[in-house]
Sequence to fold (444 residues):
Amino acid sequence: MFSLKQWNQSPEWQNWVGYETAQPQQKLSPSSVTELQEIIKKARADKQRIRVTGAAHSFSGCAKPEEIAVSLHHMRGLISVDKDAKLATLYAGTYLYEIGDALKEYGLALENMGDVQAQTLAGAVSTATHGTGITLGSIANQVEVWEWVDGCGEIHTHHRGDPETDELGDALHASLGMLGVFTKLTLRVVELYGLKEDNQLLDFEEGLECFYETAYSHRHLEWFLFPGTNKIQQKTLTMIAPVPMTAKQKRRDKFDSIVTLNGAFYLLCELARIKPSLTKKVSAISASAIPNTKREGYSYEVFPTPRGVKFNESEYFIKLADFDECISEINHILLADNKGSHFPIEVRTHKGERGMLSPTQGEDCAVLSFHVYKGMDSEPLFMWLYEYMKKWHGRPHWGKVNKLSNAELQMLYPKLDRFLEIRRQYDPDNVFINSWLNEKFSIL
Ligand SMILES: Cc1cc2nc3c(=O)[nH]c(=O)nc-3n(C[C@H](O)[C@H](O)[C@H](O)COP(=O)(O)OP(=O)(O)OC[C@H]3O[C@@H](n4cnc5c(N)ncnc54)[C@H](O)[C@@H]3O)c2cc1C
Fold:
């Protein structure tokens, strides 16, 4: 969880895993839009650069504040709800874990969520953070109205328009804070619902045979493929009536997070770190320990799962139609050489959506995430992945490690130049650009 005290006290900013660091000259946390506008106007006049940082949960350098770091920690909370239209307006700095309870009061909920909820709403929207579900898109796709302050300190509001003509909406989707600082976001929400989670350990072939059928017959399907073992954990979430999670289940989640993940899994990870030749064995032990867990509760209680140990992550979107061939080849390659990683590969599905920088580029996708335990060298796996994903025209998650060059990104995102033209209108003096954004988008 983000701690403002820690953020203020430490001269260094670092991301969740600790690999992206910066020493900003100033750390500012405005309490109002007017205060934020003044900060931006002054930075522009002083030719200084700003990065708004959310909960620092991006693995890439997209949030790295090299000169002025701004946190919207004081600009949080639910502002209004239109129950009939199913719209909820929130301050952009609200943490995702604050949204579930607030919406429940109105019988409403977020349509979908990822597997943790420590992120800020604006941070999650800016990188198109997603969960899983063949009929469901990212949190960026749930935004109906954006309010933001641009690089000149001017405030703007944009309502999502006709999909055929809403160019600005397409640019705002997954915009990495390059058009300005979001201050309020109105989300399209759904009626409060519950979820039931089921887990099964399957042989790879068994899981693949029923992958599409399971994906279409459940609201959410997620796989964890244990590298080098030919085993997958298949997790499904089914919609049920909204019921709160029992106290017993909450205790069990806490136990899992403290004992199983921080204890047993941590020791296995350390073993793999100290003796990398054991990674395959560690992967096999982890696979064999998958419990036949059933969890139930409000959706926002079931989506997040305990994350005990820290890791680095790289993630690619590929066409759903390519999934069988791609994942079979990956499984085969990793059976022979697991590239030094014992962490399961996470597989999710994602509905195609608009957005100039949407990694789906309008196509239904399978999303593959690769993790490496903190302290172990992620280069062998991530370099291999970068090369391998070219074959599938894999597009990276903006918040995760990617090694693609500007030229490669241009090929994958045909509207990138148009996005950058729109960006220039809102930030003519590049107040919001850091070195990572410049490396990826060749702006300065
Ligand atoms: C343990 C873990 C689990 C994760 N699980 C998932 C998952 O299930 N699904 C998934 O898709 N991703 C996942 N991620 C990635 C994460 O959701 C994204 O990287 C997300 O952007 C992080 O949000 P944040 O609030 O920490 O933003 P940051 O990482 O701090 O910032 C992300 C970007 O948003 C910009 N930004 C922040 N606030 C604003 C604002 N007010 N206005 C404009 N721009 C702003 C920043 O400048 C930066 O470019 C996970 C990450 C971790 C560490």
In short: The longest helix spans residues 247-274.
